UniProtKB/TrEMBL annotation:
It comes from Circaetus pectoralis (black-chested snake-eagle). Catalyzes the oxidative deamination of lysine and hydroxylysine residues in collagen and elastin, resulting in the formation of covalent cross-linkages, and the stabilization of collagen and elastin fibers. It catalyses: L-lysyl-[protein] + O2 + H2O = (S)-2-amino-6-oxohexanoyl-[protein] + H2O2 + NH4(+). Residues 34-135, 163-290, 314-414, 424-532 form the SRCR domain. Keywords: Copper, Disulfide bond, Glycoprotein, LTQ, Metal-binding, Oxidoreductase, Repeat, Secreted, Signal, TPQ. The keyword Zinc-finger does not apply. Belongs to the lysyl oxidase family. InterPro entries: LOX-like_protein, Lysyl_oxidase, SRCR, SRCR-like_dom_sf. The gene is Loxl4. Its main location: secreted. This is Lysyl oxidase homolog 4. It comes from the Eukaryota. GO terms for biological process: collagen fibril organization. The keyword Ribonucleoprotein does not apply. It is found in: Secreted, Extracellular space.
Length: 759
């Protein structure tokens, strides 16, 4: 499956996010409504439109700034603005341009309270329509989006708001996360105990799910009963008096075990009869939960009771926090997405539990965690909630349902509270999202704050810090922090040689030096980070490479320019120019941004280099590596490091191209768009003049030095099997490094080796 060109797609009606906000009386007595128009409207991103006098109209970008975007996003029910856009980025609107020269301070409750020219007074055209990108977290109490299930605890009318476990045994008090204790629920703002009369394992399953645990386990309550009775007899304990009050108890809860939240279970807060004693002969309900593998101390794997035939492995991609992301399923050996038709909390909860989290907080639709690339495996997923794996649920094959990647489903799961956030902090930055990294670690038997040695500090380590702080992804990893002053009480370097895989939940889980060894001595050479809530994610279209690859014998007289740019093998230096030719393996590159932020070059315009061959500036000096490898992984063709000018060659309907190389334009790849380098462009090849016939691996690595941060680096390598007989070339089995399951990749390699007697 490959992404269809924009022209071949059916036109998609823009999804519209419509929310109401009543402006305060005074300047604007009439209710003012805002909406975001465009395919990503439900995700908080689109053209800003205002309803005035019964007609929808747009807002001109003149004078519109971040303060205005902040007010608009808050009015739409989001916590903050990420950015604002100009020049009809999300397409040109229709009808009146209601607001122009909008000037907001940032604290206004409604866009109508800001200074502006007056309703309908404008000298703009629709090519200047403003748009906004709001942060994905919605404020409690704001009207729910039609496309999400909402934070259940925040849905109005639910009386059970939160759940917690109060640890009672000494070992439970010391463990993190807390997995065993007495159930307490928040009812109308007050914490109450739950009576254990009639308490079931189904109730426990729901409680554990809300707390971020996939399963409950049996608990021996006889010991707890003894403790309870001892406390009742203790004259110094107030338990006897408290336990006789109805306000101390939630009387009865009856769950089926499939509910995503306790508030969905039938609940009896007071006793059935007015004078009946509260929880007679009872005590508080005790629950014990089993954490998922990631949250278990010293254990590697969780247990799975599913039959192997039904287990479809799942993974989450592009999420800002642990336990959230676009849902991807491994089917027929290939990773693909899930269509959001009938996607609900029951199905989302099965995914969350399968991954070792609790139940789902939200079942997200409309590709709110970015669009996938490749097959869409499932549609109309129907789960009961008792399934151990998504593969056990009923579903339709997505090919029949006409789904596209604009409808990729995503989840936000309940995750256990690990207290990791309190063990790291950022100091000295201009905003809470940046600064010197300071960690809390044991030093000579007591916990102490200190700095991290900047030597060898990289993006993987920075990613872990940002995740640990709940700030999303790292945009920069700094080995020197000259401009940021760390805290005076954390001047000592307490961690060095930190090496993270990038998937850890806390820096303390990464490998590091035993005794600290930091020759640079910390201070201005301490590690620093900059975090961002959203990041880009570049993926090569493997199918297109396979379809466009061919050989060309190109005369040297046409290769002077390419030779200067080092796009040929070294043997070209010793040829009798301009006589002779080079054999080139040519192909098209199409690089998609599947993330949730634009991919922008790290270098400013002043550092871009002019490339005579391509007649434009290149903003990234090493953007891709092109290589031909033996099946053992050693290089046979030198390949080359290609520099690029980055632009939006194409975007899906409803998204405007924003980056262009011509005329020293802004460079980058917008969210959802792709940059295409056609096969007939200079340097879009590997020089295989010196390569003997045989079977090889063709490899492209995008953003190889991780110069620009991405939400996912596991899909940056694209490989094909390549057979060359000296005259013709066959390219097959092209895939990104994370597109197939490991067993499929191993099988492909094994077959290739057998065919070439390499085993």
């Amino acid at each position: 499956t490959m992404v269809m060109p924009a022209a071949a797609r059916p036109i998609l009606l823009p999804l519209v996010l419509l929310l109401c906000w009543v402006a305060p009386s005074g300047q604007e007595p009439a209710p003012v409504q805002l909406r975001l128009v465009g395919p990503r409207g439900p995700a908080g991103e689109g053209r800003l439109e205002v309803l005035y006098q019964g007609r929808w109209g747009t807002v001109c970008d003149d004078g519109f700034d971040f303060h205005s975007a902040t007010v608009a996003c808050r009015q739409l029910g989001y916590t903050a603005a990420v950015t604002w856009t100009h020049s009809a980025t999300y397409g040109q609107g229709e009808g009146p341009i209601w607001l122009d020269n909008v000037r907001c301070g940032g604290s206004e409750g409604s866009l109508a309270e800001c200074i502006h020219n007056g309703w309908g007074t404008s000298d703009c055209h629709h090519g200047e329509d403003a748009g906004v990108v709001c942060s994905g977290q919605r404020l409690p109490g704001s009207p729910p989006q039609a496309t999400t299930s909402g934070h259940l605890g925040e849905v109005l009318g639910l009386s059970l708001e939160e759940v917690r476990l109060k640890p009672i045994l000494a070992r439970a008090k010391l463990s993190m996360p807390v997995t065993e204790g007495a159930v307490e629920v928040k009812h109308n703002g007050r914490w109450r105990q739950v009576c254990d009369a009639g308490w079931t394992r189904n109730n426990s399953r729901v409680v554990c799910g809300m707390l971020g645990f996939p399963r409950e386990k049996h608990v021996n309550t006889s010991f707890y009963r003894k403790l309870w009775n001892m406390k009742l007899k203790d004259p110094n304990s107030s338990l006897k008096t408290l336990s006789q009050k109805n306000s101390f108890w939630v009387h009865k809860v009856r769950c089926q075990g499939t509910e995503p939240h306790l508030a969905h279970c039938p609940t009896q807060v007071a006793p059935p009869a007015p004078r009946q004693q509260a929880c007679p002969h009872g005590m508080h309900a005790i629950v014990s939960c089993l954490p998922g593998p990631t949250f278990q101390k010293g254990t590697g794997k969780g247990r799975s009771k599913t039959s192997p035939g039904k287990v479809l492995p799942v993974r989450l991609r592009a999420g800002t926090h642990a336990g959230e992301g676009r849902v991807e399923v491994l089917r027929h050996g290939q990773w693909g997405t899930v269509c959001d038709k009938q996607w609900d909390l029951a199905a989302a909860s099965v995914v969350c539990r399968q991954l070792g989290y609790g139940t789902a907080k939200q079942a997200l639709v409309g590709a709110q965690m970015g669009q996938g690339l490749g097959p869409i495996h499932m549609s109309e997923v129907r789960c009961t909630g008792h399934e151990q794996s998504l593969g056990e649920c009923r579903f339709q094959d997505a090919e029949r349902s006409g789904c596209r990647h604009e409808a990729d489903a995503a989840v936000r799961c309940h995750v256990p509270h690990m207290d990791f956030q309190t063990q790291v902090r950022l100091a000295g930055g201009r905003s809470p999202e940046e600064g010197v990294v300071e960690v809390l670690v044991p030093v000579q038997g007591r916990l102490q704050w200190g700095a991290v040695c900047g030597a060898q500090w990289g993006l993987n380590e920075a990613m872990v810090v940002c995740r640990q702080l709940g700030l999303g992804f790292a945009s920069h990893a700094l080995q020197e922090t000259w401009y940021w002053a760390g805290s005076p009480d954390a001047a000592q370097v307490v961690m060095s040689g930190v090496r993270c895989a990038g998937t850890e939940l806390a820096l303390q889980q990464c490998q590091r030096h035993g005794p600290v060894h930091c020759p640079s001595g910390g201070g201005r050479f301490s590690a620093g980070v900059t975090c961002t809530a959203h990041a880009p994610d570049l993926v090569m279209n493997a199918q297109l490479v396979q379809e466009t690859a061919y050989l060309e014998d190109r005369p040297l007289e046409l290769l002077y320019c390419a030779h200067e740019e080092r796009c040929l093998s070294r043997s070209a230096d010793h040829m009798h120019w301009p006589y002779g030719h080079r054999r080139l393996l040519r192909f098209s590159s199409q690089i998609h941004n599947l993330g949730r932020a634009d991919f922008r070059p790290k270098m400013g315009r002043h550092a871009w280099t002019w490339h005579q061959c391509h007649r434009h500036f290149h903003s990234i000096e090493v953007f891709t590596h092109y290589d031909l490898l033996t099946l053992n992984g050693s290089k046979v063709a030198e390949g080359h490091k290609a520099s690029f000018c980055l632009e939006d060659t194409n975007c899906p309907e409803g998204l405007q191209r924003r980056f262009a190389c011509a005329n020293f334009g802004e460079q980058g790849v917008s969210v959802g768009c792709w940059d295409t380098y056609r096969h007939d462009i200079d340097c879009q090849w590997i020089d295989i003049t010196d390569v003997p016939p045989g079977s090889y691996t063709f490899q492209v690595v995008v953003n190889p030095k991780h110069e620009v941060a991405e939400s996912d680096f596991s899909n940056n390598v694209m490989r094909c099997r390549c057979k060359y007989d000296g005259q013709r070339v066959w390219m097959h089995g092209c895939h990104t490094s994370d597109a197939y399951g490991a067993d499929v990749v191993n099988d492909l390699e094994r077959q290739e080796r057998l065919a070439n007697n390499l085993v």
